[in-house]
Amino acid sequence: MLRDIDHFIAGGAHAAGDRTSDVFDPNQGAVQARVRLGTALDLDRAVAAARKAQPAWAATNPQKRARVMFRYKELIEANMDDLAALLSSEHGKVLADSRGDIQRGLEVIEYACGIPQALKGEYTQGAGPGIDVYSMRQPLGIGAGITPFNFPAMIPMWMFGMAIACGNAFILKPSERDPSVPVRLAELMKEAGLPGGILNVVHGDKEMVHAILDHPDIAAVSFVGSSDIAQYIYSRGTANGKRVQAFGGAKNHGIVMPDADLDQVVNDLTGAAFGSAGERCMALPVVVPVGNETAERLREKLIPAIEQLRVGVSSDPDAHYGPVVSKAHKERIESYIQMCVDEGGELVVDGRGFSLQGNEEGFFVGPTFFDHVKPSFRSYREEIFGPVLQMVRAADFEEAVRLPSEHDYGNGVAIFTRNGHAAREFVSRVNVGMVGVNVPIPVPVSYHSFGGWKRSGFGDIGQYGQEGLRFWTKTKVVTQRWPDGSVTGENAFVIPTMG
Ligand code: NAD
């Protein structure tokens, strides 16, 4: 009997509907559970629960809301190993990486523990004669999050941690490929003391997504996933009058200057290109050495490092990375490898046909490395999202700035150098949202904000930190005067000024 994964609505399991989707164990390539694919009716139920609970939650003082976040942090820490095992079993990333996935989400919960301080408004006494002006942040009401498979703990926590701490109710539609951890995260929120109806999880595919985008009671939608869908979510959600932030795919470049410490670069690059089987939006799947001499030296060091990578099941503590998420995704990655060969790339290390003894049906792809990739290749312009590293040789620094700047995606980029002037110049000129200087995966800490540019992000406001606060609240500005009873002589027909 397969396990069924139910919706989580109004603080409990909701087991309606016959339509389901298979959830795999990517290590074995076998179905291990079925997730329900909900309909607009299931969403209505979640929205009704959220609408009922939200006013009292918004009226709960921020310090008490923060206490729920404190208890939640303790519960996540106490359940870390179980959550990581569950996450790895559906996603395929290795256990240490699953713990990192949870930890990076938990850091946003830690930020949310400071919500009383973060939510404070501004005040100006005496903005005019007897006039004070102040601002306050109020919750939007009901927010929704639609999340990708690759970070089933971190990205939901980015969204609901902020939304809920700000006083909103939240409806999460996680990826149907690894939905168990998101449900567990909601159950733990209940255990932490969150009232039922404030955090609901509805499962589904595009039918559920459309229902969310069209629901009149959902005020805001946060999306993370691939770019075409992000753009569609942004258009349809905003056309329906919602606030929308929609983050998309990526093709991040690592620029290697001639003076970089190449041993450090090889260490950082192999981790960032192949960790989590390359299924990270902040992976580094493109390396750009500056000058042919740098390229040759780097290539010489990279090849043995890539050949020594250990691919294994996600519970293998010595594995550098595990299987990719699905059979279809494995086939897609392998077709991109063939495309890059056909386009004229030099296939230096070929990861196709990789098989793990005892796990022959698992969705494994070996590490793959291409040299002499050209910016005109489709396999370079598009996101592969697998353990494939492409080397594009740049003649000089100018070309190295131009490549990521002119790419359709603009999520992250990194420069490896010992030259502070070159790094500073690069940081200021590159047309990409998040930049690492000798840092391969520059995901900002939770008290800054995350957001890519160009086709990596639609909308204006980033995730978490100050931008998250702005996204999940609306600012009300009050101008007040308490007259003493004497009527002033101002001309009330002229737009008031402060004198
Ligand atoms: P995806 O776009 O396939 O799915 C994301 C969400 O959209 C899921 O909840 C899914 O159910 C839903 N969805 C899928 N097809 C849909 C459709 N036709 N209509 C409406 N909704 C649909 O993405 P994925 O494969 O789960 O995740 C990988 C992608 O996410 C990669 O492109 C990766 O770069 C991107 N990503 C981006 C960031 C970022 O912050 N920019 C972070 C993580 C992942």
Automatic annotation (TrEMBL):
One of its GO terms (molecular function) is methylmalonate-semialdehyde dehydrogenase (acylating, NAD) activity. NCBIfam families: MMSDH. Its EC number is 1.2.1.27. SUPFAM superfamilies: ALDH-like (SSF53720). The keyword NAD applies. Residues 19-478 form the Aldehyde dehydrogenase domain. The keyword NAD applies. The lineage of its organism: Bacteria, Pseudomonadati, Pseudomonadota, Alphaproteobacteria, Sphingomonadales. Keywords: NAD, Oxidoreductase. This is methylmalonate-semialdehyde dehydrogenase (CoA acylating). It is an enzyme of class 1 (oxidoreductase). Signal peptide: none annotated. PANTHER family: MALONATE-SEMIALDEHYDE DEHYDROGENASE (PTHR43866:SF4). It comes from Sphingomonas piscis. It comes from the Bacteria. InterPro entries: Ald_DH/histidinol_DH, Ald_DH_C, Ald_DH_N, Aldehyde_DH_dom, MeMal-semiAld_DH. Pfam families: Aldedh. One of its GO terms (biological process) is thymine catabolic process.
